[in-house]
Design a protein that fits this description.
The protein is α/β, with parallel strands linked by helices. The protein starts with about 35 loop residues before the first strand and ends with a helix. The N terminus is likely disordered. The protein has a single domain, classed as Spore Coat Polysaccharide Biosynthesis Protein SpsA, Chain A. Helix content is about 35%, strand content about 15%.
Length: about 250
Amino acid sequence: MGPAAPWCPSLARVPDPAPHPREDPPGSPRGPVCDLVLPCRDEGPALRALLPRVPAAFAVVVVDNGSRDDTAAVARELGAQVVTESVPGYGSAVHAGLVAATHDFVAFMDGDGSFDPEELLPMLAEVSEGRADFAVGRRRPVSRRVWPWHARAGNALIVAWLRRRIQMDAHDIAPMRLARRQALLDLGVEDRRFGYPVELLQKVTLAGWRVSERDVTYHPRAEGTRSKVSGSVKGTVRTARDFWRVLHR
């Protein structure tokens, strides 16, 4: 959503030869203070590399939304809490994770390996230290191939509509986001499909929340996984339909 983020070659990274625990930056919390909800369907290969890299400040909640692979087994093996949500849909998985969360703060991120969980730390600081009510990420792809044209175009149209219609501050649909758990529950987001983030942004904006937006690096998905949204034109069209249904309620 919003003007498509430019390709940033300087953000490209060379993958590590093997996943390994990451040392948190100095001053980071030594134990979990925030839940990190990862809505997943068939993300086993991605989780094996992603979960060891999650900073200690986050307690991971993997929501298994109909996986046919070893998503749940990998998550448990690596110490994550696993929640099973049988009702299909991105919003269903996100809401199940929000309900299962136990900390005052909760973050959300795709579990496909396309985002760096360490980039959640400054977002957590923004909210926990009272500078913002809602922290969101704006995708900066490491290459043009990471974000297909049809997904970028749909994102741009929805963001432009929201910014013009309700003066939304954000430039993306909050693929990474963080807020206080109870505040999110009180918003009462109802969509249980791909329209969930659009409804969330609408309600956050209309409620007058202070929004902090920062760039986040957007990497290719983990090998062996496939996007349910941008992996095909059909998936993008289905998602766009969910978006527009929310906008025209």
